[in-house]
Amino acid sequence: MFLNTETPRAKELFSLDWEFRHGALDEKEAMDATAAGFSPVNLPHDWSIEFPFDENADTCGSGGYVTAGQGWYRKVFAVSLNARSKRIFLHFDGAYMCSDVWLNGAHLGGHVYGYTPFRFEITNHLNFGGENTVFVRVDNSRQPNSRWYTGSGITRDVWLEAVNEASIKPYGVYARTRRICAEHAVVTVDASIEFPCAEGLTLSSALLDADGVQVASTYTPITGSVAVQTLLVPSPRLWSDKEPYLYRLITQVRDGDEVLDHVETTVGIRSISFDSEDGFLLNGERVKINGFCVHHDGGCVGAAVPVKIWERRLKIMKAMGANGLRCSHNPPDPALLDLCDRLGFLVMDEAFDEWRRLKEKQHGSNTHESRGYSEWFDENYEDDLSAMLLRDRNHPSIVIWSIGNEVPDQTAQEGCLTARALKEICRRYDPSRPVTQACDQICAEPRPATQEFLNELDIVGYNYAGRWRTRSETFYDDDKRANPNWRIIGTEHSSVSGRRGCYGFNEALSEWSKPYYSAPVAIGKLLKFTLSHNYVAGDFMWTGIDYLGESHWPNHLSSAGVVDICGFPKDSYYFYKSVWNQEEPLAYVFPHWNLDEEEGSIVKVLCYTNCEQAELFLNGKSYGKKAKSFPSYGMTEIYGHYDRKVVPADTDDLFLSWDVPYIPGVLEAAGINNGVEICRHAVKTSKRPAIIEAALDAESIKADSRDIAHITVRILDEDGNFVPNADNDVCVSVEGAARLIGLANGRPDSMEPYNARHMKAFSGMLLAVAQSNGKVGEAKVKLTADGLVPAELNLKATEG
Length: 800
Ligand code: GAL
Description:
The strands form eleven sheets. Strands 21-22-23-24-25-26-27-28 form an eight-stranded parallel beta barrel, surrounded by four helices. The protein is built from ten helices and 46 strands. Helices cover 12% and strands 37% of the residues. Helix 2 runs parallel beside helix 3. It is mainly beta. 49% of the residues are buried. Beta-D-galactopyranose binds at residues 147, 405-406, 440, 463, 492, 542, 550. Beta-D-galactopyranose is lined by residues 147, 405-406, 440, 463, 492, 542, 550.
């Protein structure tokens, strides 16, 4: 099968056609050729998501009440005889956790951290022209080892790579924008070369624009293990969050006309800086980072996340107006960073949640035993941090390195020394980006983060700045006065969280939930502060998207996000949209109008709007126009002159509210600018559930056993109105050229497993994910439920 020896470097996906067996086995037993119990899987693979939720699971609430344990993978493969002249590597993007790899009986080595890549040279262990067997043991049995859902298994892709003796080292190309002016940009390329002692080798670099046209090139003789080149790019198109323009860099090692190695790197030309007065500057202009934190799971697929899941989620967040993403609290799947480059997110890439000092892994009961990264920190931090930096440093989207999240070491005397050691590693591999740590103990009582620790950080990162004393009024201001040179960013603050479609009228409020009319008040205060203080570079809300784990039974997920685990927006999504997205007029009204309230009782109705005013109507009757005061607007040029109409405000909050009698019917908000209605949103009291509505987000998928399509399911009444509290049990079948790989409803306390074939709708909705099974042709998606008109969809699976 493998390898294309015609090309100077072959990199082939090695993720398909593995076999898996769950359970602890001794090595001999597992690797016995006759061992039974293995079943076929493709990678990425997460076995934990396949188990039912169990209150007694040793992953605890932190890990999402799933089963972990050990698992074995094996794959039989062949490598052609003519690949013999090459050096061959087996590369893992990530496996959670404590992996060990054997090839043809030889132990290649192990890797602990579940979020960093690792590789082995396998040249001398291969049976060229014959059969080879690779075994991987993944051991996630020491629990609880994380504060969130980790998944278990080879949760990221695996690759086989073949290179010549003279080649570029892994992650050996480092491209950096050095200077930008109107006429040109200067981009340097540092390439680390393997085997540089051969004479007469040259390194060539060519930069291609988005149309594939070469815009700059250079070549230099290779005289040592590092070659440094400079490219002058005329009239550069810059990368930004708004216009994420990308170039492609081709770097080749050559011997005369012969190409010995060929590496492609995505390049975005941009300048970044952080300033103690001006916050974050992108290409010389102040840009506020309106960001969100995100964990690595993809909802119903667990930790084995097809890239289209991220693509859909990021587009949803972008449409809200977000331009920043924090990979909390570990290096992400590399595919996520490619998407951030392409879609224009400003990324904070984070290495660790723990250094030497352990953290509690189960709410309220510290076992005094880590089982997490603190156990491995001393032995591994240098390799793991280096792996993240080398892998990620070419991404234009990344603007900050984070060496940790809320590490308890911030309050310890020696913590500053660890911070310094980690910062120095960042500098070694990438001096172009600043380093932060997300601190939650600044001014904490009784033991605050030490001044030495904070001074060590290029940017002081704040988690929950308003938590202590009167700081929910002043936020960063006290520190800013005391430390005028600090550069400051909000690395983590609560979002307006809660369950989609739940308002706490009659049902008990879950963890994370405040009453719907109160939740945006405190959040709005910080949001306004961040937006109106230039020195605050931005903020990352906790979280953008709900995530598995960090929960209390019977919840198995955290509803901290503004979109749920399915990627469906909650009301709070529109809160941020009304503030961050000024391009699309918005007047969003809620709660839904199928309330279980007595007719005539007074209900608080809220509206998120970016219009000057909004008017509320119930069954056609106006309840009046209202306006918010942010951002308020003053005189310009001369006293008494306003170049914008000033609309009298009703509130200093970032939302409008009316007290309205509950009368079933139609509740509407109209957004008004300059006295003219420009948008309208309505919620209607629906009749009983009658119809299943289903929509695919793609007409076709690739028949590659990897591509996916999302199916959004909504329950409607007989008139086609959405039923916001429908909970019908919907059966989903996918037949033909695709298979169902996950179902989710977004309900934190749902006990239905994500690999079920049927699931109850939650707040009227459900998400199904269908994946190619390798066949070309058509897949039929059928959705049925007792008493409802079914839905049927066709999905094509096409070659290539
Ligand atoms: C933060 C922490 C996050 C998450 C969050 C929950 O302190 O950094 O990982 O635990 O609290 O509110």
